[in-house]
């Protein structure tokens, strides 16, 4: 099922790339339609999994990444429909395709342990995934900001100049995405901490819960990205770090998020491998 | 097509379809001295339009008059005759000797005329390809024609079609994209940096004509605050007064740069008045807010070193001109795509035009059928007379419905005929088969109030008489 989703996302990504280069109406409609189909199919898949499992498919990296892809696709589609701005799709949708490859290559999944039945676990994972989706958006917007900035600065008005919205708009989108992401990250980490604390008092001790501490790479990386984004917010507010500086920071922050989401989850963590 | 035209001229179809003809001068064919003299705005387009439709054989007229072109659009019976009449109309109306006007006139008839108007509306025929004003001017031309009541069914459809074609070509190709004047290039850059210019502030250094024009242009694009400074404060104050701006003394320049979003320099100085050392300290309090410097002074007012600063975008007049050149070449590359779209639109319009050629036949056919229906009812009156009134009206309804049903398919088929020859063939066949009125004058009387007077005058002039004369005049037109 995940493979079919990957294929639909890939077709949509191709359509967005074509539309970005050609800018004609037909390919634009095709792009949005394909992404819409992908999101609907994905929604259906998640719905079926939820029915089968009795809870949202959030446990394990593969399920989490797939959920993340779905959230990002939905948020992007919403942004596109409200702003009428399709240029970002050429950057976002390929990212979706790359991430959707994860659940395809690493299928799940064993039964989950009863300690995950707490409602706090659901809040923990979904708010973190939402935070990551926002950060992905901030990163992509930041990259396009830098590309456009360099074109204008170099007085070589070309490819991006005619396709992207203004620097001001990109900067504001970046700022909002970072802020929203930071809020969800904060909530996610806090809820996770509370839940881990509760789980330690469980009748059957779980080695993974015991491993939840500052030293665990997964938790460390999350805290690190939290500090990067906190700094980005603080610097924008007090030192006017907008534009390129904010763009670089959100790229660094998202690199950390991706690192945390994939290699750390698979190979390094001892606490989060559910 | 040529055969069809001569058939039509020879009067094979009595309800001769109207021809579309354009006669005019443009920047491509006439020098500005001549174009200036063909100024309809000065002499009143309304009077000219009425003058044209009073010419024999003309039923519709519109005038497109801009600084780059003056064109007459007419619906006429005979292209060759009309061409000569319009040319003499032009030289009489504007008092220009015929021999100095004639070599500069061009004409397009029927499909070529449609193509011409569509190309004009898209900006394909403009001096600057894709410029947007011309579509508005085409709309004005149509507005004047409707006001003077000289736009009939043909021109109504034609002009509305041209608005849609112009809009379509502009949105589906890059023909109108990118600024093609220095001032628009500057504004579009400012928009790419700041988004909406509302709420932005501009600092203008210099009080000359260029400074004034740029400040006015930015104001018209939504900039709220314009501040002017100059070494001679009196000049700055005078300019600020005329355009509604504020001034600051030259000594406060640095602080003012710190506050501005856009800095325009247009001084007459022979050496740069600003360099990196002026801009750099002003950037610190801005907290990374970008500064867009437009240096339109010649020679330059801002030393290029300032452009190396972070968050500073420095464009001088040469840079802006390079942007304009680049945009022009991009537009040129879109021309062929635009021409394809225009060709498609012309095809669409001509299909409509042909379908309109069958209208008189359709009308005659309907009337013939209805006549038969009525006469049959009248013949059976003695049998139907005894029916109660509601049954009587039911009979009336049923017979009408049968006639409608019988005519539905033939009408649709006629309107869908793809080429002019077949239209004539079908019309002719129907005329014979159903013994239709050989001359639809009876039915056309209401639709074309000018028809009667036209015919009278056409008899007086020798021009419209024979097809031979018409084709001879066609040859003359082409040479």
Topology:
The complex is a heterodimer of chains A (274) and B (479).
Chain A: H1 2-22, H2 25-53, H3 61-83, H4 89-105, H5 119-153, H6 167-200, H7 207-210, H8 217-239, H9 243-268
Helix pairs in contact in A: 1-2, 1-4, 2-3, 3-4, 3-5, 5-6, 5-9, 6-8, 6-9, 8-9
Chain B: H1 2-9, E1 19-26, H2 32-37, H3 40-43, H4 45-53, E2 58-65, E3 69-76, H5 79-94, H6 98-101, E4 106-109, H7 111-122, H8 133-147, H9 153-172, H10 182-194, E5 201-205, H11 209-220, E6 225-229, H12 233-243, E7 246-247, H13 253-259, E8 262-265, H14 276-283, E9 291-295, E10 312-316, H15 317-357, H16 359-379, H17 381-384, H18 389-415, H19 420-433, H20 441-444, H21 451-460, H22 467-478
Parallel strand pairs in B: 5-6, 5-8, 6-7, 8-9, 9-10
Antiparallel strand pairs in B: 1-3, 1-4, 2-3
Mean pLDDT of chain B: 82
Tertiary shape of chain A: globular
Total helical elements of chain B: 22
Could you tell me the radius of gyration of chain A in angstroms?
Answer: 19 Å
The helix-strand sequence of chain A is: HHHHHHHHH
Counting copies of identical and different chains, the oligomeric state is heterodimer
Helix content of chain A: over 70%
Strand content of chain B: 5-15%
Q: Could you describe the largest sheet of chain A, including whether it forms a barrel?
A: none
Lateral strand order in the biggest sheet of chain B: 7-6-5-8-9-10
Q: Uncertain segments of chain A of ≥5 residues (pLDDT<50)?
A: none
What is the SS-derived class of chain B? alpha/beta
Mean pLDDT metric of chain A = 80
Distance between the termini of chain A: 22 Å
Say how many strands of chain B there are: 10
Tally the helices of chain A: what do you get?
9
Which of globular, elongated, flat, extended, rod-shaped describes the shape of chain B? elongated
| Through-space gap between termini of chain B | 20 Å
| DSSP strand content of chain A | under 5%
For the biggest sheet of chain B, the summary is: 6 strands, parallel
């Amino acid at each position: 099922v995940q493979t079919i989703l990957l294929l639909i996302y890939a077709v949509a990504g191709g359509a967005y790339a074509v539309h970005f280069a050609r800018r004609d109406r037909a390919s634009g409609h095709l792009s949005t339609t394909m992404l819409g189909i992908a999101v609907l199919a994905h929604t259906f898949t998640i719905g079926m999994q939820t029915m089968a499992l009795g809870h949202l498919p959030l446990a394990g990296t593969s399920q989490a990444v797939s959920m993340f892809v779905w959230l990002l696709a939905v948020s992007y589609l919403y942004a596109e429909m409200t702003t009428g701005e399709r240029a970002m799709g050429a950057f976002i949708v390929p990212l979706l395709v790359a991430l959707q490859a994860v659940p395809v290559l690493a299928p799940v999944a064993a039964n989950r342990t009863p300690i995950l039945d707490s409602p706090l676990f659901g809040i923990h994972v979904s708010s973190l995934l939402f935070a990551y989706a926002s950060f992905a958006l901030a990163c992509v917007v930041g990259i396009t900001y830098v590309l456009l900035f360099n074109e204008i600065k170099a007085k070589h008005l070309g490819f991006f100049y005619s396709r992207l919205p203004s620097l001001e708009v990109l900067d504001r989108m970046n700022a909002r995405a970072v802020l929203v992401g930071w809020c969800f990250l904060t909530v996610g980490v806090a809820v996770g901490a509370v839940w881990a604390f509760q789980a330690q008092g469980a009748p059957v001790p779980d080695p993974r819960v015991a491993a939840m501490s500052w030293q665990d790479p997964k938790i460390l990386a999350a805290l690190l990205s939290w500090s990067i984004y906190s700094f980005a917010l603080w610097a924008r507010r007090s030192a006017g770090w907008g534009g390129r500086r904010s763009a670089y920071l959100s790229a660094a922050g998202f690199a950390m998020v991706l690192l945390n989401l994939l290699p750390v989850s698979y190979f390094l963590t001892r606490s989060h491998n559910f | 097509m040529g055969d069809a035209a001569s058939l039509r001229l020879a009067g094979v179809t009595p309800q001769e379809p109207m021809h579309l003809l354009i006669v005019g001068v443009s920047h491509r064919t006439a020098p500005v001295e001549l174009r200036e003299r063909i100024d309809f705005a000065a002499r009143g387009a309304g009077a000219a339009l009425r003058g044209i439709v009073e010419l024999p054989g003309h039923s519709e007229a519109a005038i497109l008059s801009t600084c780059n072109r003056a064109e007459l659009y007419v619906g006429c019976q005979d292209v060759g005759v009309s061409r000569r009449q319009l040319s003499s109309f032009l030289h009489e109306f504007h008092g220009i000797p015929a021999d100095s006007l004639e070599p500069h006139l061009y004409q397009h008839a029927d499909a070529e005329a449609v193509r011409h108007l569509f190309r004009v509306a898209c900006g394909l025929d403009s001096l600057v390809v894709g410029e947007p004003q011309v579509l508005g001017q085409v709309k004005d031309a149509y507005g004047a024609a409707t006001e003077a009541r000289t736009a009939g069914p043909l021109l109504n459809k034609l002009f509305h079609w041209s608005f849609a074609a112009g809009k379509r070509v502009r949105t589906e190709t890059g023909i109108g994209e990118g600024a093609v004047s220095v001032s628009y290039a500057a504004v579009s850059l400012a928009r790419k940096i700041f988004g909406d210019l509302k709420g932005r502030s501009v600092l203008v250094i210099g009080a000359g004509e260029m400074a004034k024009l740029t400040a006015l242009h930015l104001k018209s694009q939504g900039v709220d605050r314009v501040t002017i400074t100059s070494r001679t404060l009196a000049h700055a104050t005078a300019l600020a007064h005329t355009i509604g701006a504020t001034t600051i003394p030259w000594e406060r320049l640095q602080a003012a740069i710190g506050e501005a979003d856009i800095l325009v320099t247009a001084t007459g100085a022979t050496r740069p008045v600003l360099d990196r050392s002026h801009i750099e300290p002003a950037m610190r309090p801005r907290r990374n807010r970008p500064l867009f410097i437009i240096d339109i002074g010649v020679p330059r007012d801002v030393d290029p070193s300032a452009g190396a600063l972070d968050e500073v975008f420095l464009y001088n007049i040469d840079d802006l001109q390079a942007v304009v050149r680049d945009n022009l070449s991009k537009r040129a590359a879109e021309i062929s795509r635009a021409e394809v779209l225009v060709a498609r639109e012309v095809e669409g319009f001509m299909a409509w035009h042909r379908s309109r050629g069958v209208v008189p036949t359709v009308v005659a056919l309907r009337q013939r059928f209805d006549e038969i229906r009525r006469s049959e009812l009248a013949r059976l009156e003695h049998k139907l007379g005894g029916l109660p009134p509601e049954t009587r009206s039911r009979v009336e309804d049923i017979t009408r419905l049968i006639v409608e049903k019988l005519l539905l398919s033939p009408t649709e088929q006629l309107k869908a005929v793809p080429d002019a020859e077949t239209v004539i063939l079908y019309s002719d066949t129907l005329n014979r088969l159903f013994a239709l009125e050989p001359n639809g004058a009876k039915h056309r009387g209401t639709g074309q109030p000018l028809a009667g007077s036209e015919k009278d005058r056409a008899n007086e002039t020798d021009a419209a008489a024979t097809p031979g004369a018409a084709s001879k005049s066609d040859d003359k037109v082409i040479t």
